[in-house]
């Protein structure tokens, strides 16, 4: 079967969607399928990183798209980059042969519409893998006016492409409910979360100590936020906690990753002169186990308006590590669904808008001090292992291909 994977990011980029798509591509190749990827030639978080326009990596044909790489500093810059990606991707897809299945992720926004249009021209099935919902996300973040002309046009395109899909991959029950509300038949929706990165993420005591020593954290209680820093994940309560707890010199806040809100973290640190905040870029897969294992308390944040629009995929790696975690988000969310499956102990939940409660939980976790991984969390993590969830996703893709 010939499979096309369409997304802005792919290997060797380090952002989450690149990692998931890379692992899916390798799984499809191992299953005997012919795999082609169309992605950007620039790094997602750092456009200065450039990748070859074409290469064959581990048997996977990668076609990369030129974009100007203007970055995320302004909306117009993003718009130009997105438009360039769309135009270049269209030209590449028109010259490629027909695929049995086209799997579309969601970056840049509405890329599944392009994938759907190409299958209408050439044939084959389309399977959107919804990592985030747009324009829903743009409306929830305040970037687009609900009911405005632009939002109505984008929503029309979104609904059209989703209703043409052979299968749609939703990441949780809240996302599936949103899709059904848009008119997607329930029987088309396959609900499964992303998997933990089993090959790279495990609790690594040696890596933990090395990473902490490298960044001056050896004697610290490390509160970590790792991943995409975006308006979907409001970090105000964590930043305020760092400000209020600056006198607790043993507590240190570590922000690892990228995204538009990382600069906000840096500005907050510099404006208040906070020595208890460190920021680091995304870590390569080879260092990911040591980086994530270095935390004493992980944090997972979800803004109230974004339930069912984005998915807190970092939670699965945290469960696999067995390190205590604190969730900040609404009661009705996938995070709370997961927390109810764990016995009370090394996890805490606080609703957004309660920074004093966040500080209280951080101090409580610091008193208990992490010593060894939680076996209950690691046991739950096995349900989200790559060997389990990737196999199910590949089966869904194969079924779509047979029906096309």
UniProtKB/TrEMBL annotation:
Signal peptide: none annotated. It comes from the Bacteria. Residues 18-194 form the Glycosyltransferase subfamily 4-like N-terminal domain. GO terms for molecular function: hexosyltransferase activity. This is Glycosyltransferase subfamily 4-like N-terminal domain-containing protein. It comes from Prosthecobacter dejongeii.
């Amino acid at each position: 079967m010939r499979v096309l994977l369409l997304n802005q990011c792919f290997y060797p980029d380090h952002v989450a969607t690149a990692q998931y798509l890379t692992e899916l591509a390798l799984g499809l190749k191992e299953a005997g399928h012919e795999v082609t990827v169309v992605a950007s030639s620039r790094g997602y978080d750092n456009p200065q990183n450039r990748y070859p326009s074409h290469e064959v990596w581990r048997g996977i044909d990668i076609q990369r798209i030129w974009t100007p790489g203007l970055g995320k500093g302004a909306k117009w810059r993003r718009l130009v980059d997105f438009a360039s990606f769309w135009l270049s991707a269209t030209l590449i897809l028109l010259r490629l042969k027909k695929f049995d299945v086209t799997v579309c992720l969601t970056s840049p926004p509405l890329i599944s519409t392009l994938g759907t249009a190409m299958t209408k021209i050439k044939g084959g099935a389309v399977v959107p893998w919804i990592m985030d919902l747009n324009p829903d996300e743009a409306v929830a973040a305040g970037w687009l006016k609900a009911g405005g002309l632009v939002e109505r046009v984008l929503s029309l395109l979104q609904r059209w492409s989703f209703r043409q899909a052979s299968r749609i991959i939703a990441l949780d029950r809240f996302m599936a409910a949103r899709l059904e509300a848009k008119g997607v038949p329930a029987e088309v929706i396959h609900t499964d979360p992303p998997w933990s990165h089993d090959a790279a993420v495990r609790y690594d005591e040696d890596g933990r100590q090395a990473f902490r020593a490298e960044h001056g954290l050896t004697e610290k209680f490390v509160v970590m936020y790792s991943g995409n820093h975006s308006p979907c994940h409001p970090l105000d309560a964590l930043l305020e906690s760092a400000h209020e707890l600056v006198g607790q010199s043993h507590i240190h806040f570590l922000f690892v990753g990228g995204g538009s809100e990382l600069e906000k973290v840096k500005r907050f640190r510099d404006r208040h002169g906070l020595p208890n905040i460190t920021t680091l870029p995304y870590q390569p897969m080879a260092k990911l186990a040591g980086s994530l294992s270095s935390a004493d308390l992980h944090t997972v944040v979800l803004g109230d308006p974004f339930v069912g629009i984005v998915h807190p995929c970092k939670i699965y790696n945290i469960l696999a590590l067995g390190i205590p975690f604190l969730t900040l988000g609404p009661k009705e969310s996938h995070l709370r669904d997961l927390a109810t499956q764990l016995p009370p102990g090394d996890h805490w939940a606080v609703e957004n808008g309660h920074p004093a409660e966040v500080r209280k939980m951080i101090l409580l976790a610091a008193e208990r001090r992490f010593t060894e991984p939680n076996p209950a969390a690691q046991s739950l993590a096995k349900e989200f292992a790559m060997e389990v969830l990737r196999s199910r996703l590949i089966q869904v893709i194969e079924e779509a291909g047979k029906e096309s």
